Amino acid sequence: MKKRLIYILIATGLLASSCDALSDFGDMNDNPNATTNPAASALLTNVLAGFGGYTSTGQYAPALYSQYLSETQYTDASLYALAQPAFTGYYSGHLTDLVDYKKRTEGSVNASAVATILQQYIFGYVTDLWGDVPYSEALQQVVPKYDTQEEIYKGILAKLTEAEGQLSPSAGSVPGDIIFNGDVDKWKKFANSIRMIYSLQLSKRYPGASEYAATEFKAALADSDGSIATNEDNFVINYPGGNFKNPWRNTYDGRKDYAESKTMTDIMASLADNRQNAFGGANDDFNAANALLTSNKGFPYGLRRANAEAFATANTDFARVLRGDFRTETSPLVVMSAGQVLLARAEAAKRGWTSDVLANVYRTGIELSFKQWGQTAAATYFAQNGVSLAGDDSDLTKIALQRYIAHYPDGRMGWNIWRKSGVPTLVPAPDAVAGSTIPRRYQYSPNEYTTNEGVNEAVARLEGGDKMSSRIWWDK
Q1: According to the model, what pLDDT value does residue 333 have?
Q2: CA torsion 116→120→123→125, rounded to 10°?
């Protein structure tokens, strides 16, 4: 007899909801101890406060697989030997909170649309890590089927388009919105930006200028409500500190398990890219001048523990992830930026999908990325061979590399860009088991096999089966 699996009720700590400490970030319930009945504003605030986990420390493995980061002592993930996590926490956590938020804000079209936009972003994150996962029947009181990744992506893009069109200044408030404070124009730009980045991810499946991915990209770009085009419109989480702090702060709170990888610092050095002044910190100190010290000494990737510890001991100034002032309790965290969006537009232009002037959106995207990190791109930066567009096939490689740099340290996006383009050229961990390849997906957790028969159909669709080396649908 098929066992019931109600994803929304599975307890997990993975990005799970917690509405018991929101005083710094939003309104509490009348009874602050009654966490079983949170206020609508508290639900959204809590989701948004935790949204930084999707681009930072919620999952370290993608940042390790894409070689943004290296592990400094416990190196199992870098050696592709770490047990794979379950995805159910995303369903029982933020996705369910957003369902509840919609119910509690019934009557506000804007609140429902914002919740839908955030849900689709999360579904995109989950499918990018695992491949086929529950989508159309998720968050219901049933054993949900596994949708194909093609169905999921097309569903996401349709939902984003619908939600963006519903947003209106006269369509109600957005209680708990700590990102844009209810500014629906900025939520529209964010929705259209997700549409473009997610559409572009499908370019291996739909490369043509008249095919599905290009059509969706062009529709988002042409939308009169616009997309993120200046850093003032970036999706930024401003943390108050205390119970809600920048997630990178905890990475170096008495520990230093992660570092900027030598792969990354070598790329930055090869381009004389001064964004490295923000990307790598020289120590764990967040105080005053020490927080401004930088390091370009990347940590070698994929070492066994003894070798990693020996390097760390001999090189105490190895590059920490981000300069210290970018990872204090109250440091803002950018989830999506104008530079990232403009560089996505540059790739689409190079593919012939749009009428954007390639040279303009490419250069502007790079300049905006530099500014995001408090740096300035010199004219000489654009003139070098590794950056200057040549008008041939090498342009896609250069654009992909700039996208990879602009999304640092967002592991999901770095991994996505590498899987889609092969840029940058990555070498498997030297100390991994012989014959190991860089993972291209997460495996399904053992619990899925005992609770949801649909996993077997999902595995059957994977060439090679449920392995980390198997390619998900858009990666073929």
Answers
A1: 98
A2: -130
Q: What is the DSSP letter of 205?
A: T
Question: Do the Cβ atoms of 307 and 74 come closer than 8 Å?
Answer: no
CA 101 to chain centre: 23
Model pLDDT for residues 21-42, shown as the tens digit of each residue: 333 344 333 333 434 557 999 9
> Cβ distance 170 to 134 under 8 Å?
no
Buried b (16+ CB within 10 A) or exposed e, 423-446: bbeeebbebbeeebebbbbbbbbe
Angstrom distance (rounded) from CA 330 to CA 328: 5
- Indicate if the alpha-carbon torsion angle 199, 191, 373, 332 is positive or negative: negative
Rounded CA gap, 123 and 140, in Å?
A: 15
Q: How far is CA 261 from CA 66, 129, 269, 310, in A?
A: 10, 21, 12, 16
Let me know: does 126 contact 89? Beta carbons within 8 Å.
no
- What amino acid occupies position 414? G
Of the pLDDT bands very low, low, confident and very high (cuts 50, 70, 90), residue 53 is very high
> SS3 string of 296-343?
CCCECCCCCHHHHHHHHHHCCCCCEEECHHHCCCCCCEEEECHHHHHH
Amino acid sitting at position 345: R
